[in-house]
Specification:
By secondary structure, the chain is an alpha/beta fold. The protein is 40% helix and 13% strand. It has 29 helices and 23 strands. The strands form six sheets. A seven-stranded mixed sheet has the order 12-11-13-14-16-15-21, with helices on both faces. A five-stranded parallel sheet has the order 3-6-7-9-8, with helices on both faces. The longest helix has 26 residues, at 108-133. The termini are far apart. 55% of the residues are buried. Mean pLDDT is 89; it is low at 1-70.
């Protein structure tokens, strides 16, 4: 037999160290809670975490059932009582006995409604399993049988206006949030009447009316999204304090005890504590991965203690004790509504395997499920308790079960009767705004001036206006840098639309290229957030804000750092389509990157991240090698209702200067013809179309002078839109030159040039009289040494040779 020690606080408790300290800068909120029959009112509690947390030590058994003693199990129940929970709530949440007294009693009506939600959840999942076996539901599906106390808790304590973020096992969470069973089942069936028109499926349930915001399939990705949604609640209160004076909404996120070991948990706890976010983290603790015991891979399963480092209180309850779950749930949600973030861990048993598509072949899983169904069924346990107390009759219990049964049968019929979505819907859901949108025609919010007047300090706004006027003077003189051009566009758009926010590292000081300069000084810490050094988590917070009415800008100090946020960028691109077009995703990512010749930054700072994200659907990707392009594209991206990423050349941010057309947005789907080859060069066959972007623009301009001196010329096209690609401009140029060279700032394998070359060969082959010439980075990592780097990164001299090869047919 082996023993697992789950409590991170054991050493602190043994030594008498105080594990949870009060937070000195704590501030409460308007105590406006929803009215309940049990007269639950706002609570008045003290510091968020006080006292010493005692270690929790629990054994778990070997995998061999033959070695178990009679009545022994691999994972026993977490046997706690409401009295135990009250002690924890007093110790860690600062509640008093008087505060907690209001939670002591549950009305029969509330108990029966909670029981109904458990039955509805159980029967819905059983119906899903049957439909899966019949082939009506496909792909991955994850069922929740055995964990019904959690949807009962949601049904009891979470309101319609609260923001809800779940993971891939979310059917019952959606039900408990008020999403109708029929559309949920239709979504699982892939039908047009599903919550997301059949685009999301089992793992992606979304419903705007009930604020059920997923359904997210990548483990732990939902954590920062929920934090962003919690920020949107605070932003609402900031934007209109009078309208939201009684606001007590919260954001709730569901995660497993395994997923909560992810680093995103620490990042979100830090963010939630730093900004006192109304964020409730519900940890669903069933002790298993697909087959593996969580204890085999996690040193500590007491996730509710993770918040102690940040002053975020937590509590763990027995998911087989519904009354205890509901009472603790009410106390914890009331705390979050009035005080700040908290963790609620619910110890459960999951009766089904991970998914019907996954085998169950390890570690006594079948034996454990058999025991759990017999001894740890929360529905059977609760019904027995209600009967023993004389609270209900068997007839009343049967009526509740029959009611749930009818709803599930109706849901299956609704899904069966619904039609499949039209095939062309997939392409229609690619972008919220069409690629040819004219962003100059988008009007500013009518109440922008009024909001700015009541939320911005006049002196700070005056300073910002003076700064912007200085930048405009530089633009008029042709002296505006790329970094300053983006800064001017950002400030103008944040004033134009008060729902615009910004996140960046080192934001207070303007980051590396002054892109977010004066944003926090003008708009405050909530709209302009200086972030801890992890790009993924604040990209995730931006996604959560974007789903809830805001237009976040995320500045990457270097675009290669966004590698830490690939999961979040992927979801940015997919979400509009996955939700069936219900949720726009107006998030703009902007930063300096790319690989200039002789930049001497080494491999990690010289990666072609723009190529890495080309395969993400729904994402508009642009590049800007001039202040003119940087200014106009930034403004358009911020106004676009979908996600976009703007790349600027890291070695040109401060030394290239120009004169953008002030106030003008540029299209997000057009390339720019920077030089048109002379008619004489075209006629003599010495003209070549050159496609390039980022540092390649300057290299091509340098090469062009040498080529012209030798009697050759180029149509120089800057690819300001990498996706969608401006095929029309390329085709028009090739009609004249019939030759194509691509100076590409990405690798030979999987690069931008490879994509373009394939497209031209497939769609414009008849226009070519020579093979496409790709001048791209070698697949080798970019070295620091200039001698080696010259062999990897292409430059002006390579372009001169490449164009000459095409003209003189050296191929």
């Amino acid at each position: 037999m082996r023993t697992a020690v789950y409590a991170l606080a054991a050493l602190a408790a043994a030594s008498g160290v105080t594990a949870f300290m009060p937070q000195t800068n704590f501030a409460g909120r308007a105590p406006s809670l929803r009215a309940r029959a049990s007269t639950r009112s706002a609570v008045s509690v003290g510091p968020r975490m006080v006292g010493t947390v005692k270690p929790d030590v629990m054994p778990y058994k070997t995998a061999n059932p033959a070695s178990w003693a009679a009545g022994d199990v691999m994972r026993p129940r977490w046997l706690t009582s409401w009295d135990d929970s009250k002690s924890a709530l007093k110790e860690r949440f600062g509640y008093s006995d008087g505060d907690l007294a209001k939670y002591d009693n549950l009305s029969k009506e509330d108990q029966m409604e909670a029981l109904y939600m458990m039955h509805l959840s159980r029967q819905f999942e059983t119906a899903c399993n049957q439909a899966y076996m019949q082939g009506n539901i496909r792909g991955f599906m994850h069922l929740d049988n055995g964990q019904e106390s959690i949807p009962a808790l949601v049904y009891d304590s979470i309101k319609k206006g609260d923001k809800k973020y779940s993971y891939y096992r979310e059917h019952t969470h959606a039900l408990a949030s008020g999403v109708q069973p029929g559309p949920i089942m239709a979504e699982l069936f892939g039908k047009i009447d599903g919550t997301c028109k059949g685009a999301g499926g089992s793992m992606h349930i979304f419903d705007k009316e009930t604020n059920f915001q997923g359904g997210w399939a990548l483990v732990a990705e939902q954590l920062p999204y929920a934090a962003g949604a919690a920020r949107s609640i605070l932003l609402d209160r900031l934007r209109d304090a009078e309208a939201f004076k009684d606001d007590d909404r919260l954001s709730v996120v569901f995660i497993g005890e395994g997923g909560s070991q992810n680093g995103r948990m620490a990042e979100v706890l830090n963010a939630a504590a730093k900004e006192t976010l109304p964020l409730l983290i519900i940890v669903i603790d069933n002790g298993r991965a697909i087959n593996t015991f969580t204890g085999d891979v996690a040193a500590n399963q007491d996730v509710y203690l993770q918040g102690q480092h940040y002053g975020v209180p937590g509590i763990k309850v027995d998911g087989c004790d519904l009354d205890g779950v509901l009472k603790a749930g009410r106390a914890v949600t009331d705390y979050v509504r009035t005080k700040g973030p908290a963790i609620l861990q619910v110890h459960t048993f999951r009766f089904n395997g991970h998914s019907p598509a996954d085998p169950e072949h390890e570690r006594g899983r079948k034996q454990e499920k058999k025991w759990a169904r017999e001894a740890a069924d929360p529905i059977a346990i609760y019904e027995a308790e209600l009967l023993e107390r004389g609270t209900v009759t068997q007839a009343e219990l049967d009526e509740v079960k029959a009611r749930a049964n009818k709803e599930c049968k109706d849901a299956v019929k609704f899904a069966s009767d619904s039609s499949p979505p039209p095939a062309n819907l997939a392409k229609e859901l690619e972008f919220p705004d069409k690629p040819n949108t004219d962003y100059n025609l988008k009007t500013a919010p009518q109440d922008a001036d009024a909001i700015n007047a009541r939320t911005l300090e006049p002196e700070a706004l005056a300073t910002c206006n003076a700064h912007m006027e200085t930048l405009r003077d530089k633009a008029r003189a042709g002296q505006l840098t790329i970094g300053d051009a983006i800064n001017l566009a950002v400030l103008e758009e944040m004033i134009r639309d008060p729902t615009t926010t910004i996140h960046a590292e080192d934001l207070q000081a303007g980051s590396s290229y002054d892109i977010p300069k004066l944003t926090q000084q003008t708009f405050g810490k909530l709209r302009a957030a200086d972030e801890i050094i992890d790009e993924g988590h604040f990209l995730g917070k931006a996604l959560g804000e974007g789903m809830n009415g805001y237009r976040p800008i995320v500045e990457m100090m270097n675009t290669n750092f966004a590698i830490y946020g690939m999961a979040e960028i992927s979801s940015l691109g997919n979400t509009y389509a996955t939700t069936g077009g219900k949720f726009d995703m107006p998030v703009t990512i902007v930063g300096a990157g790319g690989t200039a010749p002789a930049q001497s930054l080494g491999a990690e700072h010289s990666q072609p991240f723009h190529a890495y994200i080309m395969g993400i659907p729904g994402l508009k990707i642009c590049s800007a090698a001039s202040p003119e392009a940087a200014y106009g594209l930034t403004k358009s991206m911020i106004r676009d209702n979908g996600p976009g990423m703007l790349f600027c050349p890291v070695k040109m941010m401060k030394d290239v200067k120009g004169s953008p057309e002030l106030g003008k947005c540029m299209p997000l789907n057009k390339a720019a013809l920077l030089n048109k080859a002379s008619d004489a060069s075209v006629k003599s066959g010495k003209a070549v179309t050159v496609l390039t972007y980022l540092h390649g623009v300057r290299e091509a301009q340098t090469a062009m002078l040498e080529l012209q001196a030798e009697g050759m010329d180029i149509d120089l096209i800057e690819l300001r839109s990498l996706k969608p690609l401006d095929k029309d401009t390329i085709r028009e140029s090739l009609t004249r030159t019939n030759k194509l060279a691509i100076l590409d700032e990405s690798t030979y394998s999987g690069g931008i040039g490879a994509t373009i070359s394939a497209m031209v060969s497939e769609e414009m082959f008849d226009l070519l009289d020579a093979p496409v010439k790709r001048l791209c980075m070698d697949d080798a990592p970019v070295p620091y040494s200039l001698a080696m780097e010259a062999a990897v990164v292409k430059r002006a001299s390579d372009l001169v040779t490449g164009v000459a090869d095409l003209v003189f047919r050296r191929f």
